[in-house]
Amino acid sequence: MLRMHNLSKVYRxxxxxxxxxxxxxxxxxxxxxxxxTGPSGSGKTTFLNIAGLLEEFTGxxxxxxxxxxxxxxxxxxxxxxxxKLGFIFQGFNLIPDLNLFDNVDVPLRYRGFNAAxxxxxxxxxxxxxxxxxxxxxxxxELSGGQQQRVAIARALAGEPKLLLADEPTGNLDSQMARGVxxxxxxxxxxxxTILMVTHDPE
Length: 202
Hints:
Strand order of the largest sheet: 2-1-4-5
Radius of gyration: 17 Å
Structural class: alpha/beta
Number of strands: 8
Number of helices: 6
Strand content: 25-35%
Shape: globular
Helix content: 25-40%
Oligomer: single chain
């Protein structure tokens, strides 16, 4: 599903070189749930940004679902990202002025699905995260755990092959965090590959 070999990422200024990743190898098989842990500054976010095709790497190889992304232009990377990946962020990244239905709809519109297909995907995704009855609510009317469920629904609506989660429980109390983790485990059991970055050993 995802394979990186001898990957490196160097940030350069005119004075200094910073090696964020050096000789990095990882293989995530289809259907796995992998947690990447490590202290702050260890390169987790850089790795996730590269995995999500949001950032380019300096050296090595990266294959995403059999496609070599090395040297791809922005347009090709964007198309591959939209087709294969879903993202869940620590800060939810919901649009406060839009209700739940419209928040989940935003990336689907960008991908050009027709209205009927978008509606099907939105209702199915919100149903999977247990929020079918809240489609007309706004983010401010929900708890943190519910907002994170909306963010997960938004990612699922695109039917991604790989779900990338960046500290998905970082802003939640322990009970809400447990609920979100149980939901991610359920999604994984249904066949979606998940790659999660966290500093939390639990």
